[in-house]
Amino acid sequence: MLLERFLYWFCIIVFAVFFIDGSRFIYAGERESVDDLSDKATLSLYDRRIFEHEHFFDLKPRNMLEGKGLSLDLVYTADFVTNHSGGLKRAGSGVDSHISYLANTDLIVGFDTKKAGFWNGGTFHGHLFNHHGAKPSEDYIGDLQVADNFETNKVTKLYEFWYEHSFDVYGTDLSLLIGQHDLNSEFNITEYGLLFIHSSFGIQPEISNNIPVSNFPVAALGFRIKWEPTENMYFMAEISDGDPGKNNGGFDWTLDSKEGFLNFFEAGYHFGDKEESRTMPGTYKFGGWYHTDEFDDVRDIDENGDPLEHNGNYGLYFIADQMLIPGKGKRGLGAFFQIGGVPDDRNQVDFYTGGGVHYQGIIPTRENDILGLAVARASISENLKDIEKMDSHETAVELTYRAQVLPWLAIQPGVQTIFNPGADSSLDNAVVSIIRFQINF
């Protein structure tokens, strides 16, 4: 716990010192651009230009490698989660409310074949991560949707490894991707929702709670095709392994037709300039999926007492991101909305609605900081409620503020109230605080 405590207090001190405006430590006449820094092979922690760097270690070798097509990113994310009341914390239960620590270290490698002097249009991508720490939703909260989107088992693994090739087809863009791929890195994404720590603002729970899907912490083998007939419109589809399993090491690439295949489809339309809020940027997506495996009925059984089987599973979803009140540059108030539904006879969560607001630059001197408030409501299948005595829903409300203290350091405190955790009427509403530290090395 010594390392965790040191990191916690170190980041708190940095946050307090630089929250007003870190640039005040760079005196007039001493400011140099990051490009000038790239000519230096070493960097002192006392160099005031560290307040401008995108990475903590912004050294000449990194820039040289990127020029040759090789990019490297090392990101450390640490969360401190506390369940203050409700959930699994009940009098005499033995469940305490101490601070839970969990962390993820991601190493992401990219290789551009054109920059490297080989062929045009090729990109290789690799992603390894190490995860360790507690499991607050499982051990202390008891919620279905999972309060922290980094919660998983302790593991070090190869997460993604894929190759993408892009083509120019009669003036339109076409790309093909094959390999071990996180489906949620492209499908079922709300851009404003990415701010939030709660899992449902990533991949929606009517998908992740009901079927095995290629998503953190387990990616699956897949093949994706994407066509962009115009700059504002795209269509894409992916077929992937129907059950990626645990794949703890990241090298289990066995395909088994008995587990079925997962097919995803999405069409989207976007407009405006995301870098300039006055253009009123917006994105609207409509998607669907179909899983070919067999799924147990949540209620009905056959004459032998076994659950009835359904051939396949499917769902539809819609996502919208829209700037509402623009400001200067990226500043402004935006909103997002999510909705998705699936059959209630073979799924625990049969309907989901979510949405929220996202205000960037609400403090005049903090143009890169973001304040957000969002709600996620997962509805429980009527068929399942009849036999499990579950509540009709689990609803989470998250208030969060992401402070970009330095270009390479972000601190994000927030609080969540989870109503009907686990859709279990015996559990009180939970109040959970989370503070996230993220360092881009």
3D structure, described in words:
This protein has 441 residues and is mainly beta. The protein folds into 2 domains: 1-58, no CATH class; 68-440, Carbohydrate-selective porin OprB (Porin), CATH 2.40.160. Helices cover 10% and strands 47% of the residues. The chain contains 6 helices and 16 strands. Strand 4 and strand 5 form a beta hairpin. The relative contact order is 0.14. Residues 17-46 have low confidence and may be disordered.
Major sheet: size, sense and barrel closure? 16 strands, antiparallel, barrel
Give the tally of β-strands.
16
The amount of helix comes to 10-25%
- Biggest sheet: strands side by side, in what order? 1-2-3-4-5-6-7-8-9-10-11-12-13-14-15-16
Rounded to an integer in angstroms, the radius of gyration calculated over CA atoms is 23 Å
CATH level-3 fold name of the largest domain: Porin
The CATH superfamily label of the largest domain reads Carbohydrate-selective porin OprB
Cα shape: globular
H/E series, N to C?
HHHEEEHEEHEEEEEEEEHEEE
User: Could you tell me the strand content as a percent range?
Assistant: over 45%
Number of helices: 6
Query: Which class of secondary structure composition applies to the elements?
Result: mainly beta
- Intertermini distance: 22 Å
Compute the average pLDDT.
88
Known CATH architecture of the largest domain: Beta Barrel
- Return residue spans where pLDDT drops below 50 for at least 5 consecutive residues: 17-46
Quickly count the domains: 2
